[in-house]
C-alpha cells in the first residue's frame, strides 16, 4: 500500500512539473514571437493655416532594418493628460517606406477639436 502511495505522488509531481514547464515554455514562445517595429515620432506640430481646418502634422522615422507601412493613432491631450479627442491618420499615404527614412502624416480637423489641447500622443501602428 505504501509503495502505491509513493508511486502516485511521484506521478503527480511529474505531471505537475510537466504542466508547469509547458506553461512557461508557451509564455516564452508568445513573447519571442511578438515583433514590434522600431520607429521614432518626430516634429509633431499644429498647423493653423485655415480658420476652417487645422492640422496635426509629424514624421515617423523607420529605425528598423526593413520596409514598413501603417498609420498613426493621434490622441489629443489636455493639461491633465486626459484624452479629449482621438483619431487615426495614414503615414506616407499608406505606402511603405524604407529603413532610415522618415515619412509624414497629417490629420485635418475643425479648430474646435483643439480646444483645451496642450499635448499629443502619437503611436505608430504597423500594417
Architecture overview:
The chain is α+β, with helices and mostly antiparallel strands. The chain is built from one helix and six strands, in the order αββββββ. It has a three-stranded antiparallel β-sheet, with no helix packed on it. It has a three-stranded antiparallel β-sheet with strand order 4-3-6, with no helix packed on it. A hairpin with a 6-residue loop joins strand 1 and strand 2 (54-62). The chain starts with a helix and ends with a strand.
What form results from the Cα inertia axes? elongated
Discrete helix count: 1
Q: Unreliable segments (pLDDT under 50, ≥5 consecutive)? A: 18-36
H-E order: HEEEEEE
Largest sheet: 3 strands, antiparallel
Helix content bin:
25-40%
Class from helix and strand fractions: alpha+beta
N-C termini distance: 62 Å
Overall mean pLDDT stands at 80
Order of the strands making up the biggest sheet = 1-2-5
Q: Which percent band covers the strand fraction? A: 35-45%
Q: What's the alpha carbon Rg, rounded to whole Å?
A: 25 Å
Number of strands: 6
Q: How do you describe this structure in short?
A:
With 127 residues, the protein is of the alpha+beta class. The protein contains 1 helix and 6 strands; from the N terminus they run αββββββ. It has a 3-stranded antiparallel beta sheet with strand order 1-2-5, with no helix packed on it. It has a 3-stranded antiparallel beta sheet with strand order 4-3-6, with no helix packed on it.
Amino acid at each position: 500500500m505504501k509503495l502505491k502511495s509513493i508511486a502516485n505522488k511521484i506521478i503527480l509531481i511529474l505531471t505537475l512539473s510537466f504542466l508547469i514547464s509547458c506553461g512557461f515554455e508557451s509564455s516564452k514562445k508568445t513573447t519571442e514571437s511578438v515583433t514590434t517595429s522600431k520607429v521614432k515620432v518626430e516634429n509633431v506640430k499644429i498647423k493653423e493655416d485655415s480658420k476652417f481646418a487645422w492640422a496635426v502634422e509629424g514624421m515617423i522615422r523607420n529605425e528598423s532594418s526593413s520596409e514598413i507601412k501603417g498609420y498613426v493613432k493621434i490622441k489629443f491631450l489636455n493639461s491633465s493628460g486626459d484624452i479629449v479627442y482621438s483619431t487615426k491618420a495614414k503615414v506616407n499615404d499608406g505606402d511603405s517606406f524604407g529603413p532610415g527614412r522618415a515619412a509624414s502624416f497629417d490629420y485635418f480637423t475643425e479648430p474646435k477639436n483643439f480646444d483645451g489641447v496642450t499635448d499629443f500622443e502619437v503611436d505608430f501602428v504597423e500594417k
